[in-house]
Amino acid sequence: MRIGKTRVDLALACIDKWDMIYYISDWKTLGERLMSTASNKLANLVIPSGTNVSNIWKAREVYEDAVSVFLTGENVTDGVITYTVEVTDDFEPSASGTWSTLQDAGADYAPALQGKAKALPQVALAATGIRIKSSANVTADRTWGATKQYGAAPAFDS
């Protein structure tokens, strides 16, 4: 197996099963191969009309492999109603489980507003479940789109 080029620019090498040494000549190439990432659209978080809690993202089903997640406010205008992100550490997240308001820098974390995008704090990705809660029942469906960035498998030459 050969990794990168054979020109010696860095003192970084790989020894294959026949004790042959191959040198990595381009750190950027190595970084792209070992640290590549990809993006993926996630299911929307939606608070249905007449309620105040969204659907639940379960870590193992939605964002377990995420490096980062950002939310976009797609339809979230509702007068004086405010929104917060809630997290749980329950083994099996459910609507009747134990939920806590996510805080960032000592303040309740509010998701993106209408037409805005906002990254979730990294610590939220350690939770087993994530949802959005409003301060009162909403008058129409309120929707947040989302995308995750995740580590992709390294691609080595053979």
Your description of this structure?
The protein has two domains: 1-35, no CATH class; 37-151, Jelly Rolls (Sandwich), CATH 2.60.120. A four-stranded antiparallel sheet has the order 3-12-5-10, with no helix packed on it. The chain has a four-stranded antiparallel sheet with strand order 4-11-6-7. The radius of gyration is 21 Å and the shape is globular. It contains two helices and twelve strands; from the N terminus they run ββαββαββββββββ. Residues 1-34 have low confidence and may be disordered. It has 158 residues and is mainly beta. The chain is 8% helix and 38% strand.
Number of domains: 2
Kindly report the CATH topology of the largest domain: Jelly Rolls
Q: Could you list the spans in which at least 5 consecutive residues all have pLDDT below 50?
A: 1-34
Largest sheet: 4 strands, antiparallel
Which of globular, elongated, flat, extended, rod-shaped describes the shape? globular
Mean pLDDT: 81
Walk across the major sheet and give the strand order.
3-12-5-10
Examine the secondary-structure arrangement and name the CATH architecture of the largest domain: Sandwich
The N- to C-terminal Cα distance equals 5 Å
Query: Rg from C-alpha positions?
Result: 21 Å
Structural class: mainly beta
Helix content: under 10%
Number of helices: 2
DSSP E strands, number: 12
Question: How much β-strand is present in the residues?
Answer: 35-45%
CATH domain class name of the largest domain: Mainly Beta
